[in-house]
Amino acid sequence: MRDTTELNAAAERFADRLRAAPQSRLQRGAAAEGLALARELALRAQRLERPETEPLVMPDAGVFAVADQLVVAATDLAENMRSAPADSPAGDLAEAVRLVREAEARSGL
C-alpha cells in the first residue's frame, strides 16, 4: 500500500488557493486550470478503478465549485493508487503530484 499523503497535500494546497482567490482571478483562468486538473485526476482514478469502462468527464460546476471538485478527484485517485499495481500508468504517484504542482503554477495563484 502506497503513501499518497503528498498528492492529497498538494491538491489541498491548490484547492485552498482557489477558494481564497477573488472571482475575477478565478475567471481569468485559475478556475479553468483547476477544472482541467480535476478532470485529469478523475480520469486517472476511473482508469484505475474500472479499466474496462469508458471514463466519465467531470462536469463544469462553476468557478466556485472547482476547488471542491479538485479535492474530490485527488482523493479518489489517491484511494485508488493505494491498491493499484505500482507499474500502472494511471497509478504513477510522482506524476500525479507533478501535475498538481504544475497546474497550480500555471494558475497564477
Brief digest:
The protein has four helices and no strands. The chain is an all-alpha fold.
Describe this structure in words.
It contains 4 helices and no strands. The chain has helices at 5-20, 23-49, 66-83, 93-107.
Series of H and E elements:
HHHH
Class by alpha and beta content: mainly alpha
Percent of sequence in beta strands: under 5%
Q: Which word captures the global form? A: globular
Could you report the average pLDDT, rounded to the nearest whole number?
Answer: 94
Distance between the termini: 33 Å
Low-confidence stretches: none
- Please summarize the sheet with the most strands: none
Q: Helicity, in percent?
A: 55-70%
Radius of gyration: 13 Å
Would you report the number of β strands?
0
The number of helical elements comes to: 4
Oligomer: single chain
Features:
70% helix, 4 helices, mainly alpha, 109 residues
Task: Describe the SSE topology.
Elements: H1 5-20, H2 23-49, H3 66-83, H4 93-107
Helix pairs in contact: 1-3, 1-4, 2-3, 2-4
